[in-house]
């Protein structure tokens, strides 16, 4: 007796034609993503080919490393959009930021408006080494200031892998979760893929992002999804329509 196994889908085939990507590093020369406009052009075309029709790109703001100002990000975005149009790419393209939750971030949201994905939704991240000592204080104060935090790639914070309750605490503290799509093809490793699957099965993700930096990330969209059940992933991908502009 033969058992028929359904083949796992390729990641790019799960991206709908009208998808809005809310996490990428496409602006040239501003962080660890695109280095030149030629990189930005190539990566943007590749995202279009995957099915993405709107982009909110999110350069890093990290004290002492990527100290981008809001003015620098917007000026870079405006120039990039003009250059893309010259090359025949006239897709909706906006810029927000991916903020590391550090001392500088606290000063920013207490004294200035943040670059948000939409309305008051702001993309935040933590160090991959450890969570901020005052993490829950930061999240509380951020929400008191009127913002809704979306935590980028929670599956990649290894210090939470053996203490799943911390993910539940973050959700209870008002943090939304954004899955890095490449996690589900094993790009960041098997352990991260497993945590992503657990978070998906528990319905803890709210949105997804490509987190595209370079060509290797684009190539990984050709890999097969490792999940046992892809339905939760499809549902979270569909949630990105919330950011349509």
Model description:
With 245 residues, this protein is an alpha/beta fold. The protein has a single domain, classed as Metal-dependent hydrolases (TIM Barrel, Alpha-Beta Barrel). It has eight helices and nine strands. The longest helix is centred in the N-terminal third of the chain and has 17 residues. It is globular, with a radius of gyration of 18 Å. The mean pLDDT is 96.
CATH class: Alpha Beta
**Element string (H = helix, E = strand):** EHEEHEEHEHEHEHEHH
Could you describe the largest sheet, including whether it forms a barrel?
6 strands, parallel
Rg over CA atoms, rounded to whole Å, is 18 Å
Oligomeric state of shown chains:
single chain
Give the end-to-end Cα distance, rounded to a whole number of Å. Answer: 52 Å
- Reading side by side through the largest sheet, how are the strands ordered? 3-5-6-7-8-9
CATH topology term: TIM Barrel
List low-confidence stretches. Answer: none
Total strands: the figure is: 9
The structural domain count equals 1
Full CATH superfamily name: Metal-dependent hydrolases
Estimate the strand proportion: 5-15%
Average pLDDT:
96
CATH architecture descriptor name: Alpha-Beta Barrel
Q: Tell me, briefly, the overall form.
A: globular
């Amino acid at each position: 007796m033969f058992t028929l196994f359904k083949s796992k889908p390729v990641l790019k085939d799960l991206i709908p034609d009208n998808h809005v990507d809310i996490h990428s590093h496409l602006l040239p020369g501003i962080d660890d993503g695109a280095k030149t406009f030629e990189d930005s052009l190539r990566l943007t075309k590749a995202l279009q080919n995957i099915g993405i029709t709107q982009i909110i790109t999110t350069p890093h703001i990290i004290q002492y490393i990527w100290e981008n100002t809001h003015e620098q990000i917007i000026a870079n975005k405006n120039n990039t959009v003009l250059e893309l149009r010259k090359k025949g790419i006239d897709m909706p393209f906006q810029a927000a930021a991916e903020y590391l939750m550090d001392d500088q971030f606290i000063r920013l949201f207490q004294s200035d408006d943040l670059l948000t994905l939409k309305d008051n939704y702001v993309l935040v991240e933590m160090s991959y080494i450890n969570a901020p000592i005052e993490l829950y204080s930061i999240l509380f104060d951020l929400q008191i200031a009127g913002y809704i935090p979306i935590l980028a790639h929670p599956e990649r914070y290894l210090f939470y892998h053996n203490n799943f309750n911390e993910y539940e605490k973050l959700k209870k503290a008002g943090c939304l979760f954004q899955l890095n799509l490449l996690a589900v093809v094993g790009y960041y490793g098997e352990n991260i893929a497993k945590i992503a699957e657990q978070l998906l099965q528990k319905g803890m993700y709210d949105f997804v992002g490509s987190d595209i930096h370079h060509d290797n990330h684009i190539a990984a969209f050709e890999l097969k999804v490792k999940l046992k059940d892809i339905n939760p992933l499809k549902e979270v991908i569909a949630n990105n329509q919330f950011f349509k502009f």
